[in-house]
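seq:
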Amino acid sequence: MALTILAQITAQPGKEALVKAELEKLVPITRAEEGCIRYDLHQDNQTPGFFVFYETWESRALWQQHMNAPHLAAYMAATEGAVAAFTLNEMTQTA
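struct:
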């Protein structure tokens, strides 16, 4: 069964453009990864520093490979101190 991920990222005030640029770099690389079915980045219309990734993966194991990928480590290094909050939910579609 596919795994759905909801990742919520809030940028520090004044760091919105940096965080957005770094998140956008992840999209084409991740979409090409094995097991990635969907990887969509969204930005809140009223709060420009709030971002959501809506992801679908073939399996948790393949998502875990993604989480350990070098491009995610590079994102973490590039945004160190620029992210105020990060919430991740692993979900299963029920209907």
